[in-house]
Amino acid sequence: MLDVRPQPALHDTVTALTQRLFHEARLLDDERFEEWLELLCEDVSYHMALKSRRFRADRSAPIAVGAGNVFNDNLARLKLRIDRLRSGFVWAEDPPNFVRRVVSNVEVLDADEPNEAVVHSVVVIHRNRIDGQTRLLTAGRTDRWRKGAKAGFSLRAKSRSTIRCCPTATSTYFSRSIQRETMTMRLERIGREPEFSRYMDLKEGWLDRRIFSDAEIYEEELYRIFARSWLFVAHESQLPKAGDFLTTHMGEDAVIVTRQPDGSIKVYLNSCPHRGNKVCFADAGNTRRFVCNYHGWAFNTAGELQGMHEEYCYDEGDIDRKKNGLRQVARVGSYKGLVFATFAEDGPSLDAWLGDFRWYLDMLLDNEEGGTELIGGCIKSVISANWKFGVENFIGDAYHAGWTHDSGCRSMNNGQPFPPIDMDNSYHASVNGHGWEFGTEGVGDLFLLGRPKVMEYYEKIRPKMADRLGTMRSQIFGSVASASIFPNVSFLPGISTFRQWQPKGPMQFELKTWVIVNKAMPDDIKDEVTKGVMQTFGPGGTFEMDDGENWENCTTVNRGVVTRHEKLHYRCGIGRQIDHDTLPGIVYRGQYNDANQRGFYQRWLDMMEATDLGAMPPRPEPRLTGVAETRDLPGLFAL
């Protein structure tokens, strides 16, 4: 008997048609409807019939409820639908959805007509609502494609639920049928192409709101930023002795940080290589070994596999201990007590990563002999907001303080308002995405701390600070100021809160806060600083609660199905850049400014689009190249 079943298509045809399906899904995911319209020919007929069924409560038998049309449109009506969607008056969802489409199980067969192909596929639609509900919708599709002379394959005709459209003007029709099915499948991550520049125009001063809530953008941040940046993991004062350890995260990767017998510090994944279980559940401590509680695999403080439960069950050659230790990060480095690590084997060194920003960091880390330490442990809190809102607030948003924190400031300081800002003698300074905004009066943040003894202490050591760091930096320290180290560390140098914004999804972060003080500071002054930090920027502090509420509302509101397409304004002070003979970095005059925020997002964009970190441009060209110690700077930098 003659076999008349359709035959599998050639490899090139399969590849071309699969890419067509992926491209259409990406356009719809990104809500690039205008580009999607370009796939349609002028006489397109878009007709989708939907036959519905309901099941009885016991799932015993379906009940047919008839059929109807979801769409029956021509090109003009489709354009009208999209225009109305953009207006926000129709198709609004409450609560709004994030939708992602995954095309899977693609099978391409030769059709009965020349230059045509039949494509069977499955589309899985992942719909994630802002209220936390998640739905997976699946649809089996059968498309019919025709290959044009110039433009490749185009959609031709559709059987049961008909969608007729055309990818190019020279293409002919296609159709596909859609039927609901139940299925299981394996989802694979398909990386977004690096088109992140469309989410911002920093020269014009705007950002796309979707970078604060889009799940796919967040996933790319984990890969492109957190897996490649130098990330803060510890302060050396937290690991004074061999065997001391703490656990933290690099992005969403859990890691263990340990002090070695030779004094070095190692960082490795907190995940057993046997089944992936978490190895260490303690926040910090001292130990000789880590043992996984699942199968008893034991590791020393260097992360090396030492033994296993019932080790006799492994025959010779079954396991190589040297290859089955805890995965080490690629590089670990420290700068004046701050310990950083990176998963990236290549890329800039830690010194190059910090660059000229070391000049500013030394105001916090080296304003007195002996350096700094973290005291009082770590406080962790969870805030339902995107991690970038915390970073950008500390990197440059002095503007919010006099309004958001007015009542808190008055309650802490006998009814006195927030200190006024001298726009002629205050600045924003940005280096490679790190930023420090500051005044030069020397007392604003010390005043906000609300602890007179702390003010007296710093006024007493200020002459020595000037001798050590120069007059300019001694005047900056203690002023109203805030700073961030790219990508996710921030601090208030005069108030002494030091913090890290750990991402936990596009709409949540864990805030870890410490108190940072000079080691040489008397114990009673350290106690005063700790109390001041708790009253201002602790979880129940007068200022911290103000900020958390604002960040949460910014995140949830920006996610609205219409709201997300509106631009955010980042133009404040856009024309106030200056050349300064003492201050390194990209410097803008006036503390009320968006300059550092723009610098942060410029480095965000650099990393999201860079394939080679070593090729990323310095922002700006460094002035301190070859300078190992900023205290030794000659000339104007020693002012």
Characterise the protein shown here:
This protein has 639 residues and is α+β, with helices and mostly antiparallel strands. It folds into 3 domains: 11-179, Nuclear Transport Factor 2, Chain: A, CATH 3.10.450; 231-332, Rieske [2Fe-2S] iron-sulphur domain (Rieske Iron-sulfur Protein), CATH 2.102.10.10; 354-638, Naphthalene 1,2-dioxygenase Alpha Subunit, Chain A, domain 1 (Alpha-Beta Complex). 25% of the residues lie in helices and 29% in strands. It contains 15 helices and 29 strands. The strands form 7 sheets. A 9-stranded antiparallel beta sheet has the order 20-26-25-24-23-22-21-29-28. Strands 3, 4, 5, 6 and 7 form a 5-stranded antiparallel beta sheet that branches. The chain has a 4-stranded antiparallel beta sheet with strand order 13-12-11-14, with no helix packed on it. A hairpin with a 5-residue loop joins strand 5 (134-147) and strand 6. Helix 4 packs across helix 15 and helix 7 crosses helix 15. It is globular. Residues 89-96 and 157-192 have low confidence and may be disordered.
